[in-house]
Amino acid sequence: MSTDTSPRFLLFITGDSPIGQRATTNFRDLAETVYKEQYELEIIDILSQPARAEENNILAAPTLVRLTPSPPVKIIGDLSAEGRVRQILGLPEQPGESPSPSH
Predict the structure, then answer these.
(1) Is 103 exposed, middle or buried (CB count within 10 Å of its CB: 0-12, 13-18, 19+)?
(2) Domain spans of the chain?
(3) Fold classification of 1-68 (topology level)
(4) Which of 53, 87, 89, 99 is the most exposed place for a label (fewest CB within 10 A)?
């Protein structure tokens, strides 16, 4: 469930690859901890939707794109470095803390 103010993300993957599955799992685990159910995630397979990747200037997969809050942010990889992902997204280091405002 999301609201109009919920963070919105796109996750670009290539088919059913293991790295894409890891990125999906890693992001969902983090997002459920931080946002609970108050976020929106769209998973886009660039093999079946190459135009979406081109529209978003995606050059590698997996790539996570945070659309909102602004500014947009892209993270390439399987999102396993949780501390780094939190830092890039402006999230608190400790689960349970409120997300910090965007930079």
Answers:
(1) exposed
(2) 1-68
(3) Glutaredoxin (3.40.30)
(4) 87
